[in-house]
Amino acid sequence: MATEANTADDGGLVFHPMDQFIVKPLFSDGPVGMFTITNVTMWMALTVLAIIALLVLGTSKRSTVPGRTQSIAELAYGFVYKMVEDVAGKDGVKFFPYIMTLFMFIVVSNFLGLLPAAFTTTSHIAVTAVMAMAVFIAVTVIGFVKHGAGYLGLFWISAAPLPLRPILALIEVISYFVRPVSHSIRLAGNMMAGHAVIKVFAAFAPMITISVGVGILVTPLSILAITAIYALEVLVAFIQAYVFAILTCVYLKDALHPHH
Amino acid sequence: MEGDVVQMGAYIGAGLACTGMGGAAVGVGHVVGNFLSGALRNPSAAGGQTATMFIGIAFSEALGIFSFLVALLLMFAV
């Protein structure tokens, strides 16, 4: 991955589209260790602060006629609560705080990452993989605690004809263990791809300073493209957080009711 | 020299893995299209099924993500 900015003369882009995802230490130039404070740490902290500002400070007054901040906080709470209740069922509601935390963290860090010059923490597989593995381990533990060995009935589909069941069981086991992979890479890949596309168009935007003939066509087109893709990314930022949370609810429902 | 050929093969494979995106696009389009045709027939039932649609999208998108994973592995792990 090119850390040095390429010159436009040798046909390369002005900057590498993946440069925005480099993890840099904030206070030193040394290597990134286990406890180094990096830009990822800073943006995660900002995410948490933003959530606290929205949910804790926003609802601290508890006015009967909610203000703007309180309305958004209530909207977010009601939205996630309804999702958990609809998808995971009534007994999934006691895991609501966990799913609310996941959803708020992902949606706020996605939106903060859309600010210019910001760092998208959810674009790193390391960040999303921790969340997905936590969901996977939690769901497996909940399933075995609630149902014991009966949780393995999740893989033995009694609705299917008997000769098919071993094959289906194999497929179900594979798809069960692939869950954390797809769960984490879906979020990271979507965020990374969107931001990289914006950066590719951003590198084409100053073309008019190099050659007026080509630039008069390319520059307005790429600026329009950045605007359009940015609008799409606002949508994707929310939808991916929603999908992550709703899949957590689906996995939770599987753990609570393995037979169906 | 041999390393260069391996590198070339990895890059070509990573490029070919991008064709998996087309499959994911067809799958997601199929899910949403069928949801829409069903929703227009019975709009009153559509609201409660949006979550199901998103779950379907997520599952069909997962296979596209695996092609992305293959590309990543070829680029950085081979």
TrEMBL record, chain B:
Record flagged with keyword Ion transport: yes
Membrane spanning stretches: 12-33, 53-77
Domain V-ATPase proteolipid subunit C-like: residue ranges: 12-74
Primary subcellular site in the record, as a coarse category: membrane
GO cellular component: plasma membrane; proton-transporting ATP synthase complex; proton-transporting two-sector ATPase complex, proton-transporting domain
Keyword NADP assigned: no
Annotated GO MF terms: lipid binding; proton-transporting ATP synthase activity, rotational mechanism
Function of the protein: F(1)F(0) ATP synthase produces ATP from ADP in the presence of a proton or sodium gradient. F-type ATPases consist of two structural domains, F(1) containing the extramembraneous catalytic core and F(0) containing the membrane proton channel, linked together by a central stalk and a peripheral stalk. During catalysis, ATP synthesis in the catalytic domain of F(1) is coupled via a rotary mechanism of the central stalk subunits to proton translocation.
Name of the protein this chain belongs to: ATP synthase subunit c
Organism expressing this protein natively: Roseovarius aestuarii
